[in-house]
Amino acid sequence: MGRNNDRDGARRWRLAADVETRRSDKDDLVAVAETIKNTRLLKDEATEEKGDRARMASFVGAMAIADLVKTTLGPKGMDKILQSTGRGHNVTVTNDGATILKSLHIDNPAAKVLVDISKVQDDEVGDGTTSVVVLAGELLREAEKLVNLKIHPMTIIAGYRMAAECARNALLQKAKDNKQDPDRFRSDLMKIAMTTLSSKILYQDKEHFAKLAVDAVLRLKGSTNLESIQIIKKAGGSLKDSFLDEGFILDKKIGIGQPKRIENAKILVANTAMDTDKVKIYGARVRVDSMAKVAEIEGAEKEKMREKVQKIINHGINCFVNRQLIYNFPEELFADAGVLAIEHADFDGIERLALVTGGDIASTFDNPESVKLGHCKLIEEIMIGEDKLIHFSGVEMGQACTIVLRGSSSHVLDEAERSLHDALCVLSQTVNDSRVLLGGGWPEMVMSKEVDELARKTPGKKSHAIEAFSHALQAIPTIIAENAGLDSAELISQLRAEHHKDTTNAGIDVISGGVGDMENLGISEAFKVKQAVLLSATEATEMILRVDQIITCAPRRREDRM
Amino acid sequence: MAATAAVPRASSSKTESYVDTKRRDDVRQANIIAARAVADAVRTSLGPKGMDKMIASANGEVIITNDGATILNKMEVIQPAAKMLVDLSRSQDAAAGDGTTTVVVLAGSLLKSSLSLLSAGVHPTAVSDALHRLSIRAVDVLHGMAIPLDLSNRDALVKSAATSLNSKVVSQYSSLLAPLAVDAVLSVVDPAQPDIVDLRDVKIVKKLGGTVDDTELVKGLVFDKKVSHSAGGPTRVENAKIAVIQFQISPPKTDIEQSIVVSDYTQMDRILREERNYILGMVKKIKATGCNVLLIQKSILRDAVTDLSLHYLAKVKILVVKDVERDEIEFITKTLNCLPIANIEHFREDKLGFANCVEEASVGDGKIVKITGIKDMGRTTTVLVRGSNQLVLDEAERSLHDALCVVRCLVNKKFLIAGGGAPEIEMSRQLGAWAKELQGMDSYCIKEFAEALEVIPYTLAENAGLNSIVIVTELRNRHAQGEINAGINVRKGQITNILEENIVQPLLVSTSTITLAAECVRMILKIDDIVTVR
């Protein structure tokens, strides 16, 4: 009731304002301004926040998000439990920034910006999803201090831009490229994969998985199409039992009474109804006057199916994979013809299979010559753990391969898949852009040093912002050290001193808890990842800094919200 | 931890998610406490003198069991860390099939030690790393203790199956069930792939009535169904020719909607006659091949058989079993070494299976169909489990499953290890000694964890009503003197050489217990936040 009264009141009030507006046409400007101030531009429940308040709200929101994922950074970062409020209260345990952020409920617009950059980072380079959010958060934290010192946000932005440019140049100079030398290139890839994996659940078996990932990516021969690397998760066994298999594995069963092993297979991939070809007109029915006629129609339907199966067999195939169900009757026909028929392969499986075997997905079978068949050397049933799967080896598309992940529980498997996916993304990017950097906070320290020098040379208030940028960069090694339970202040100062020498490979060695030589420890990162982290974090910060007003639209009716 | 403590918190956040996250140490502590509560819940069911739990589910169903995995599955815990322990026992069930309680109790004890390490200021990742090293080393210790096994040594296999059964409700029947489990598994081992056993080839059929004593291994097939003899068909057929059919013996039905228009009285008679002829035609075709037993797949589209067709089939003396599930077809065809027939046109003699005898037997108040003496039988086997009430029956099935898994483990990895707490004490002793050689955090953590392993013998003794401290200290003493196979003999209530008592278990069960428990504990340790998400 109270709400209705309020609304009525508001309407009356607005009517009055309307009248006043009309009247004010003739009045002087002061009155206009006065009226506009009182006029309601926005809907009832919409709110707006302005100026400092708005900026503060976005700073706080963005920093809260950064703080949330901060503890997952680095090789000794912690995991989070994501507890779903949806059905089943599913539990996910993860260390992957993008996964954590993706699943959050977020109400704060600035926080959403950070979630978005992490998502973009995930799509673009696959790794560094946590770093980018943490760096943006640190940049905002520094910016907040500057704003409190009454430095105009635009000045801060200008300073940040200069600093980012300078930092990028510093990285460019230091990046190494070993593309010409295949052996060293491979060892670079191994190092990058191991560095990426060392912050994940696969840490203990990182060499094994780094090798898996590198082998898989090198098979791609430079393409970034990760589609042809298939990851199959099978519970049971331990992570060490995971393996890379050339070819394709389909998690399906072979029909009863059909050959379990086919050499030189000719495969027809199809998406067609193998239950019955129905007349798809609603209400179509036949009227007959005797049982014999019904039997005839049934016979005709069977005959139709038989013809269809015959047409399919006439393609000269010995393996038929269908996306839809294959009923008993056609299954038996296939079995009689010695054709291996696989039913109910899911969409994803079908498309991938068509891709790797080089065939088309067919749905009509009248023109055998126009349908491209897929080929592979051997189809056989294999057993992984408890389950039987169908293995296609020697496929047309040579780069295709399957990684079979084994692990003790579904949590472990899911997290392993996410980690491996990150590694694969990074590696495939690195194959294209083979510049590498050292890891362990080394790039941040290099950038920070250059940016510091720039700050000293730059006159004007901008230099404060540039200096702040350098601080924010140093926050990343600080957090890595803190997460490992090390004395961060001590380590960072040592590291800074080390970096003021001309050339150094010093970074944080989390394992021994001191400053170490990253080159010797084999900790490398892809240039592309670092660059993406730097640039998108700076851009996101700039975007949030520019905000001086937040308008929240009136929510829709309750039932529309989730 | 000291260095990480000073992390500023922006608590006035606007995000919904941030409202119910707690401080990291609290989260970790809460997780550990919740997980330990789960472990404590199943602790008393460990060992041969462990107690059973009665679980009353929400829909009024009651289950009595001693199987850790089953108890935890039914507990419906909500706390995420506690859920992970439930998953842990499930993984152990999948990996080894036995030791589902042990793994949870062990994880609980490791968590307890972790908690004290954490409160002493050790960084969680250091604890976690130490635990990883410990688990690798522990597996080495276990390998050192293991006794190689030959699969032809049936006695040894029976012994280990019996050890698994001894802690169950059906322990008094272990002398019957253990050899049964061994025979069942060995009969499905394919000589071409001697390391792989697919337990799906062992079918367990439960039938109420009788006692567990009546449980038997059937060389052949058993259906928990009646023969359809409402029309007076045969219930016993010798020299059976069996067809598995996937079509229906009933009036025709088209996929497209159809209706028969009857315009006058005489037509009705004709239609009835035609229907009769149609079915008779099918039955004749079936009979022509010499088939005398029909297994008919269940059909959802129409009746698989009608009274009329049953009548005709009875006339030609064909035994009919109807409503066979589609997913059973593969098992059946594999066993009978025949092919399913999906169309009457394809009904040929070469698709039939042969058996000496198909008969309906009455057991208790129900009836079953037995097919025995199958010619060229596939590598499958069926176990008919009997029990006086549903609870016993279910528990017998679960126990038998565990026993089957134990035997399967032995086929996979042909090593045995002593039971009765001997491996745990030996691990604890050797790892404790190893901890003294190490330096720094690892040494400190491993020493703590090595002690935590003693929880298994303690619990065994406690559950058996023995003085656990006296027993475990004596056990430790005996192991220190080099008797690595000394263990707790629960029956005699003292320490004996456990190998002489025939208490053995597969190595795989012990190794997977320690590795899985360590993996789960490490995962829990690494969590520092619970975030509520969509």
TrEMBL record, chain A:
Keywords: ATP-binding, Chaperone, Cytoplasm, Nucleotide-binding. It comes from the Eukaryota. SUPFAM superfamilies: GroEL apical domain-like, GroEL equatorial domain-like, GroEL-intermediate domain like. Its main location: cytoplasm. It is found in: Cytoplasm. CDD domains: TCP1_beta. One of its GO terms (cellular component) is chaperonin-containing T-complex. It holds the Pfam family Cpn60_TCP1. One of its GO terms (molecular function) is unfolded protein binding. The keyword Chaperone applies. Belongs to the TCP-1 chaperonin family. Molecular chaperone; assists the folding of proteins upon ATP hydrolysis. Known to play a role, in vitro, in the folding of actin and tubulin. This is CCT-beta. It comes from Zingiber officinale (Ginger).
Automatic annotation (TrEMBL), chain B:
Keywords: ATP-binding, Chaperone, Cytoplasm, Nucleotide-binding. InterPro entries: Chap_CCT_delta, Chaperone_TCP-1, Chaperonin_TCP-1_CS, Cpn60/GroEL/TCP-1, TCP-1_chaperonin, thermosome_alpha. The keyword Ion transport does not apply. Its main location: cytoplasm. The keyword Transmembrane helix does not apply. Residues 1-21 are annotated as: Disordered. One of its GO terms (cellular component) is cytoplasm. One of its GO terms (molecular function) is ATP binding. CDD domains: TCP1_delta. It is found in: Cytoplasm. It holds the Pfam family Cpn60_TCP1. NCBIfam families: chap_CCT_delta (TIGR02342), thermosome_alpha (NF041082), thermosome_beta (NF041083). Molecular chaperone; assists the folding of proteins upon ATP hydrolysis. Known to play a role, in vitro, in the folding of actin and tubulin. Belongs to the TCP-1 chaperonin family. This is T-complex protein 1 subunit delta. It comes from Zingiber officinale (Ginger).
